[in-house]
Each structure stands twice: as C-alpha cells, then as structure tokens.
TrEMBL record:
Gene Ontology biological process terms, A to Z: proteolysis
Boundaries of every Sushi domain copy: 24-88
Originating gene: LOC126912246
Native organism: Spodoptera frugiperda (Fall armyworm)
Species classification: Eukaryota, Metazoa, Ecdysozoa, Arthropoda, Hexapoda
Pfam families found in the cross-reference section: Sushi, Trypsin
Record-given protein name: Uncharacterized protein LOC126912246
Length: 354
C-alpha cells in the first residue's frame, strides 16, 4: 500500500468514526503559484468549494520543483500541513561566478567589502548559513587553537549576537547595495559552539524584505533527493567563495569545484596532519577538498556546497552542505589544509522544515 493510499485509508477511518459528530466543512484553498492540485475522490472539485473532508495531491508545473509536502489533509475544517511552494530553484547562467542565491552577511556599518560570512537563499525571505567558528594554528602544525565566532555566535557569552549587528546583501552585481535587515536567526537546540565541537553548525536567517526577484532565485533544497549519487567519494560539487584582493577589504567571487571526500580519507588526513582537529568532524559533518591550493578563507563560512543534477536540458543545483570549519593559519586569512568540513544539510531536514 503506497503513501497516498495509506493516507486515504486513515482519512476514511477517521471520517466513518466521526459521522455522528457535528461536521465542519473544509474550504479548498487556491492553487499554489506555478502548481495545481487534485482532490482525491472529487475530480471536479475546485478552489473555494467546501467538502466534508479533503486530501489534496499537489503537483508543480514542468520546470518547477516542490518545496514542502506533496499531500495536504483536511478533517473537520482543520488543515494538517501547509501548502508547498513550487519554485524554479537551482538554475544559474552558464559561466556565472556568483550563483543567484548566494548572499553576503555583513555589518550595516561596513561598505568597504568586509563580510562576516555568506549564505544561500532557500525561500522568499529565508537564508541558510552557518554559525561559524574557525580554528587557528599557531607555531606548530599539530596545535590548533579556537578563536571567537565571526558570524552569529558569540563564543565568549555563549549566545547569539544581536541581530541588529547584521544585514544581508545579494552577492551578484544586481543586489541591493543597502542590504536587507535581519529579523531573526534560528539554530538547532543542540548547537553550543566550541563546547560540543560545532555540532549542528547551521542557521536559518529571516530577512525583513523578500530576497527573490527576477535575478535572485533559491537553491534547491530537497532532503535526500539525489543524495545517494551526490555524496560519493570523488563526486564533484561547487562552492561559491569570496577571496581576498589586493585592494583593501574588497573581495572577488569565484566558483570552486571540490570533490566529496570519504569519511575514512578525511579522518586519515586529520590524524596525520591535524590530530587535534578530529573532534570537529562530528557525525553530521562531511569533507570535501582537493590538493591544489583550493581552500576557504575568512568570510566564507556558511557558503553552500552544491551538486548539479541534469534533467533534460535543465541543470539544477542542490544544496548538500554548509561550510563549517577548517584549520587556518592566523598569519593568513585562508585555510591551510586540503579539506573543508561541511555541515550536512540533510541531517537537519526537520529543523529546516519546521
């Protein structure tokens, strides 16, 4: 028995048990933007109709991906779940150096190119990023020392920084130079900074105004979708990085290709070169990187590692990881290792959906 048949069975069972009760009707909602729905058992039903019960099977138009659950149920006038969004996610212009969902997070007082960290747009006014702590390396390459958080987490006070400290700007040239105010930052309950080795290093950032536009699109974020093919040893992903320039704090944007590294290989690299770093490779982290000088720099925390999937002539990018931490040399602004650890987005699917 498939999922929809199980839902219908449960639905009929509940209704048959409630026939003697006062019946409250269900008013059918509007179709989702760029999508439609069918009502199981009522093929001619349309938005605005009232029914004793309803199960909606929702679909998106060709070229659009669904963000949310495919099925909604209404019993006794109460809807269970929310209407999903149909979005043209994860597409970008060939040759682009900045994805259309990539954002910069900085202070309202900074207009000189400095930035705390970065993130990826996943909804109309929602960005996914990291809490971010980087590790420093002093004098001897077997000793890394932590320094304070550079993004949302105040390590000394063990709490979030004030949200008035941040604005979000679109990283491409068409972004709003004045930025978008941050109204809320949420993170998993088990995040405790360095206390638990940056476990659950992920954040959801809400903005005051919508981020999506003709030039700004969300990255695809379907938990588990294509994961088996994408997170395999050697499979190539891409991450947008902002690298230091020779002109003050100004930075230039590049798209770097990084292969996924198996947990065994990453642990071997850590144990041989950075033994004190091993604790930061928690269960919901994975590694990516290569031995060609590609690494992350200060301000790159929160950037999304994305993997392409082609369907017909359309290639979409799916978010799989958020830049978390890598060993760095405090005399430099960039990492010193051939790997970067990422927070695995799929492990936090419930947190993101809720």
């Amino acid at each position: 028995m498939n999922y929809q048949k199980k839902l219908m069975f449960i639905l009929m069972f509940v209704i048959n048990g409630a026939v003697s009760q006062i019946v409250k009707s269900c008013t059918l909602p509007s179709d989702p933007d760029n999508g439609r729905y069918e009502v199981a058992g009522f093929p001619s039903a349309k938005p605005g109709d009232t029914l004793q019960y309803a199960m909606l099977n929702i679909s998106c138009l060709p070229g659009y991906d669904m963000v949310g659950n495919q099925t909604l149920i209404c019993l006794q006038g109460q809807w269970f779940g929310v209407m999903p969004e149909c979005t043209n996610c994860g597409t970008m212009t060939e040759g682009a150096t900045v994805p259309p969902w990539h954002v910069t997070i900085r202070s309202p007082q900074w207009n000189d190119g400095r930035e705390f960290c970065t993130g990826s747009v996943i909804r109309r006014n929602l960005v996914i990023s990291g809490m971010f702590v980087r590790l420093s390396q002093h004098h001897h390459h077997h000793h890394q020392q932590p320094i304070t958080a550079h993004c949302f987490w105040d390590e000394q006070r063990a709490r979030l920084r004030d949200i008035e400290y941040y604005i979000i700007t679109i990283s491409n040239q068409n972004g709003d130079p004045d930025g978008n105010l941050v109204t809320n930052v949420k993170f998993p309950e088990d995040f405790r900074g360095l206390q638990n080795y940056l476990q659950a290093d992920i954040a959801l950032v809400t903005t005051a105004n919508p981020l999506l536009s003709d030039t700004v699109r969300p990255i695809c974020l379907n938990s588990g979708h294509h994961r088996g093919r994408q997170l395999q040893d050697g499979r190539l992903g891409m991450v947008p990085l902002s690298l230091p320039s020779t002109k003050g704090f100004r930075r230039h944007h590049v798209l770097k290709t990084l292969p996924y590294i198996s947990m065994a290989q990453c642990l071997d690299s850590i144990s041989s070169s950075y033994p004190t770093f091993g604790g930061y490779l928690t269960y919901e982290k994975f590694c990516a990187g290569r031995q060609n000088g590609t690494t992350i720099c200060q301000g790159n925390s929160g950037a999304g590692l994305m993997f392409p999937e082609a369907k017909g002539i359309v290639t979409r990018f799916y978010l799989r990881g958020v830049v978390s931490v890598s060993p760095v040399d405090m005399t430099k602004s960039c990492g010193i290792s051939d790997f970067v650890t990422f927070t695995n987005v799929d492990f936090h699917g419930d947190f993101i959906k809720n």
